[in-house]
Amino acid sequence: MRTLIAEDDEPVGRALRDVLSANGYAVTLVHRGADVLLRHAEAQVILLDLGLPDIDGLEVLRKLRRVDDVVVIVLTCRDDERSVVLALRLGADDYLVKPVRLAELLARMEASVRRYRHAELDGTGYSAGGLQIDFGLRQVTVDGSVIHLTPTEFDVLAVLARRAGTAVSREVIQDEIWGDAFLTKSNALDVHLHQLRMKLGKPVITTIRGFGYRLEP
Ligand code: CA
Fold first, then answer.
1. Which of 61, 93, 103, 111 is a Cys-bridge partner for 152, taking CB atoms 3.0 to 4.6 Å apart?
2. Predicted TM-score of the model (pTM)
3. CATH superfamily of 2-115
4. How remote is the CA of residue 68 from the centroid of ligand 1, in Å?
5. Torsion angle of C-alpha atoms 17, 97, 169, 137, degrees rounded to 10
6. How far is the CA of 49 from the centre of ligand 1 (A)?
Protein backbone atom coordinates (compact mmCIF):
# COMPACT_ATOMS: atom_id res chain seq x y z
CA MET A 1 0.00 0.00 0.00
CA ARG A 2 1.57 3.29 -1.09
CA THR A 3 1.40 5.71 1.80
CA LEU A 4 2.17 9.41 1.95
CA ILE A 5 2.92 10.77 5.42
CA ALA A 6 2.69 14.54 5.87
CA GLU A 7 4.39 15.32 9.16
CA ASP A 8 6.66 18.28 9.95
CA ASP A 9 7.92 16.85 13.25
CA GLU A 10 10.96 14.99 11.91
CA PRO A 11 11.37 12.33 14.67
CA VAL A 12 7.63 11.57 14.66
CA GLY A 13 7.60 11.35 10.86
CA ARG A 14 10.61 9.07 10.76
CA ALA A 15 9.21 6.81 13.49
CA LEU A 16 5.94 6.48 11.56
CA ARG A 17 7.77 5.81 8.32
CA ASP A 18 9.96 3.12 9.88
CA VAL A 19 7.12 1.26 11.55
CA LEU A 20 4.87 1.37 8.47
CA SER A 21 7.73 0.27 6.22
CA ALA A 22 8.36 -2.65 8.58
CA ASN A 23 4.68 -3.57 8.16
CA GLY A 24 4.87 -3.69 4.38
CA TYR A 25 3.76 -0.19 3.42
CA ALA A 26 5.68 1.76 0.77
CA VAL A 27 6.13 5.08 2.53
CA THR A 28 6.97 8.56 1.34
CA LEU A 29 7.54 11.16 4.07
CA VAL A 30 6.94 14.85 3.33
CA HIS A 31 6.97 17.86 5.63
CA ARG A 32 4.81 20.48 3.96
CA GLY A 33 1.19 20.73 2.85
CA ALA A 34 2.32 21.81 -0.61
CA ASP A 35 4.12 18.47 -1.00
CA VAL A 36 0.85 16.63 -0.35
CA LEU A 37 -0.87 18.62 -3.10
CA LEU A 38 2.02 17.84 -5.46
CA ARG A 39 2.40 14.15 -4.68
CA HIS A 40 -1.05 12.84 -3.65
CA ALA A 41 -1.50 10.89 -6.90
CA GLU A 42 1.34 8.54 -5.89
CA ALA A 43 -0.49 7.48 -2.73
CA GLN A 44 -3.32 5.12 -1.84
CA VAL A 45 -3.43 6.35 1.75
CA ILE A 46 -2.40 9.75 3.12
CA LEU A 47 -1.63 10.32 6.79
CA LEU A 48 -2.18 14.04 7.25
CA ASP A 49 -0.96 16.16 10.14
CA LEU A 50 -3.01 19.35 10.54
CA GLY A 51 -0.29 21.57 12.02
CA LEU A 52 1.91 21.89 8.95
CA PRO A 53 4.32 24.82 8.49
CA ASP A 54 3.13 26.18 5.13
CA ILE A 55 -0.58 25.37 4.68
CA ASP A 56 -2.97 24.25 7.41
CA GLY A 57 -3.86 20.57 7.04
CA LEU A 58 -7.58 21.35 6.82
CA GLU A 59 -6.91 23.62 3.85
CA VAL A 60 -4.75 20.91 2.27
CA LEU A 61 -7.66 18.51 2.71
CA ARG A 62 -10.15 20.96 1.19
CA LYS A 63 -7.95 21.41 -1.90
CA LEU A 64 -7.12 17.72 -2.18
CA ARG A 65 -10.77 16.66 -2.14
CA ARG A 66 -11.50 18.70 -5.25
CA VAL A 67 -9.24 16.40 -7.25
CA ASP A 68 -8.64 13.10 -5.45
CA ASP A 69 -10.67 10.53 -3.48
CA VAL A 70 -7.57 8.88 -1.98
CA VAL A 71 -8.03 7.64 1.59
CA VAL A 72 -7.02 10.40 4.03
CA ILE A 73 -6.46 9.69 7.72
CA VAL A 74 -5.94 12.82 9.80
CA LEU A 75 -3.30 12.32 12.48
CA THR A 76 -3.06 15.34 14.73
CA CYS A 77 -2.75 16.82 18.21
CA ARG A 78 -5.96 18.80 17.74
CA ASP A 79 -8.67 17.00 19.64
CA ASP A 80 -11.34 19.71 19.77
CA GLU A 81 -14.74 18.73 18.42
CA ARG A 82 -14.74 21.54 15.86
CA SER A 83 -11.56 20.34 14.14
CA VAL A 84 -12.76 16.73 14.13
CA VAL A 85 -16.13 17.60 12.61
CA LEU A 86 -14.59 20.00 10.10
CA ALA A 87 -12.02 17.45 8.96
CA LEU A 88 -14.67 14.78 8.49
CA ARG A 89 -16.93 17.19 6.62
CA LEU A 90 -14.06 18.13 4.35
CA GLY A 91 -13.72 14.46 3.46
CA ALA A 92 -11.26 12.91 5.89
CA ASP A 93 -11.93 9.18 6.14
CA ASP A 94 -10.72 8.90 9.68
CA TYR A 95 -9.35 11.07 12.46
CA LEU A 96 -6.80 9.95 15.02
CA VAL A 97 -5.45 12.07 17.87
CA LYS A 98 -1.74 11.90 18.73
CA PRO A 99 -0.13 10.15 20.38
CA VAL A 100 -1.75 7.33 18.45
CA ARG A 101 -1.38 3.72 19.46
CA LEU A 102 0.46 1.92 16.72
CA ALA A 103 -1.89 -1.08 16.74
CA GLU A 104 -4.84 1.26 16.29
CA LEU A 105 -3.21 3.12 13.40
CA LEU A 106 -2.38 -0.13 11.63
CA ALA A 107 -5.92 -1.43 12.19
CA ARG A 108 -7.45 1.71 10.71
CA MET A 109 -5.10 1.61 7.73
CA GLU A 110 -5.85 -2.07 7.14
CA ALA A 111 -9.57 -1.27 7.21
CA SER A 112 -8.90 1.27 4.44
CA VAL A 113 -7.06 -1.35 2.39
CA ARG A 114 -9.96 -3.78 2.80
CA ARG A 115 -12.42 -1.15 1.67
CA TYR A 116 -10.41 -0.43 -1.47
CA ARG A 117 -10.14 -4.12 -2.35
CA HIS A 118 -13.82 -4.62 -1.62
CA ALA A 119 -14.72 -1.75 -3.95
CA GLU A 120 -12.43 -3.03 -6.69
CA LEU A 121 -13.88 -6.54 -6.58
CA ASP A 122 -17.51 -5.56 -6.50
CA GLY A 123 -18.63 -4.24 -9.83
CA THR A 124 -22.35 -4.67 -9.33
CA GLY A 125 -24.84 -1.93 -8.65
CA TYR A 126 -27.85 -0.93 -6.61
CA SER A 127 -30.94 0.81 -7.93
CA ALA A 128 -34.18 1.77 -6.20
CA GLY A 129 -36.49 4.75 -6.09
CA GLY A 130 -34.31 7.08 -8.17
CA LEU A 131 -31.15 6.21 -6.22
CA GLN A 132 -28.49 4.41 -8.24
CA ILE A 133 -25.16 3.19 -6.92
CA ASP A 134 -22.34 1.78 -9.04
CA PHE A 135 -20.04 -0.01 -6.59
CA GLY A 136 -17.31 -0.50 -9.20
CA LEU A 137 -17.18 3.13 -10.34
CA ARG A 138 -18.05 4.33 -6.82
CA GLN A 139 -20.60 6.62 -8.38
CA VAL A 140 -23.99 7.64 -7.00
CA THR A 141 -26.82 9.28 -8.90
CA VAL A 142 -30.17 10.55 -7.64
CA ASP A 143 -32.84 10.97 -10.32
CA GLY A 144 -30.07 10.92 -12.92
CA SER A 145 -27.86 13.58 -11.32
CA VAL A 146 -24.40 12.57 -10.08
CA ILE A 147 -23.96 13.17 -6.33
CA HIS A 148 -20.43 13.91 -5.16
CA LEU A 149 -19.70 11.93 -2.01
CA THR A 150 -16.48 11.67 -0.04
CA PRO A 151 -14.99 8.15 0.02
CA THR A 152 -16.32 7.48 3.52
CA GLU A 153 -19.79 8.81 2.74
CA PHE A 154 -19.83 6.45 -0.22
CA ASP A 155 -18.73 3.54 1.94
CA VAL A 156 -21.42 4.20 4.57
CA LEU A 157 -24.04 4.25 1.82
CA ALA A 158 -22.60 1.09 0.27
CA VAL A 159 -22.75 -0.78 3.60
CA LEU A 160 -26.44 0.16 3.93
CA ALA A 161 -27.22 -0.54 0.27
CA ARG A 162 -25.78 -4.06 0.39
CA ARG A 163 -28.38 -4.76 3.12
CA ALA A 164 -31.15 -2.49 1.82
CA GLY A 165 -34.45 -2.91 3.62
CA THR A 166 -32.85 -4.34 6.75
CA ALA A 167 -31.68 -2.49 9.84
CA VAL A 168 -27.89 -2.31 10.08
CA SER A 169 -26.39 -1.68 13.50
CA ARG A 170 -23.93 1.15 14.16
CA GLU A 171 -21.41 -1.48 15.21
CA VAL A 172 -21.59 -3.30 11.87
CA ILE A 173 -21.20 -0.04 9.95
CA GLN A 174 -18.28 1.12 12.11
CA ASP A 175 -16.61 -2.26 11.84
CA GLU A 176 -16.83 -2.28 8.04
CA ILE A 177 -15.71 1.31 7.64
CA TRP A 178 -13.07 1.71 10.33
CA GLY A 179 -12.32 -1.86 11.37
CA ASP A 180 -13.55 -1.03 14.88
CA ALA A 181 -17.12 -1.78 15.95
CA PHE A 182 -16.91 0.10 19.22
CA LEU A 183 -15.83 3.65 18.47
CA THR A 184 -17.89 4.77 21.44
CA LYS A 185 -16.36 8.23 21.74
CA SER A 186 -16.41 8.95 18.05
CA ASN A 187 -19.24 10.84 16.41
CA ALA A 188 -17.65 10.30 12.99
CA LEU A 189 -20.51 8.09 11.79
CA ASP A 190 -23.11 10.71 12.78
CA VAL A 191 -21.24 13.42 10.86
CA HIS A 192 -20.91 11.27 7.75
CA LEU A 193 -24.58 10.25 7.88
CA HIS A 194 -25.69 13.85 8.29
CA GLN A 195 -23.67 14.87 5.23
CA LEU A 196 -24.87 11.86 3.27
CA ARG A 197 -28.53 12.64 3.96
CA MET A 198 -28.08 16.27 2.94
CA LYS A 199 -26.38 15.30 -0.32
CA LEU A 200 -28.89 12.60 -1.25
CA GLY A 201 -31.72 15.05 -0.62
CA LYS A 202 -34.21 12.22 -0.16
CA PRO A 203 -35.37 10.62 3.07
CA VAL A 204 -34.01 7.20 2.11
CA ILE A 205 -32.03 6.48 5.29
CA THR A 206 -34.17 5.74 8.34
CA THR A 207 -32.74 5.98 11.86
CA ILE A 208 -33.54 2.98 14.05
CA ARG A 209 -33.27 4.55 17.49
CA GLY A 210 -30.74 2.92 19.76
CA PHE A 211 -29.67 0.50 17.06
CA GLY A 212 -28.60 1.82 13.69
CA TYR A 213 -29.88 2.67 10.24
CA ARG A 214 -31.82 1.25 7.32
CA LEU A 215 -31.76 2.17 3.64
CA GLU A 216 -35.34 2.14 2.35
CA PRO A 217 -35.54 0.08 -0.84
CA1 CA B 1 2.79 19.34 13.03
1. 93
2. 0.65
3. Response regulator (3.40.50.2300)
4. 23
5. -50
6. 6
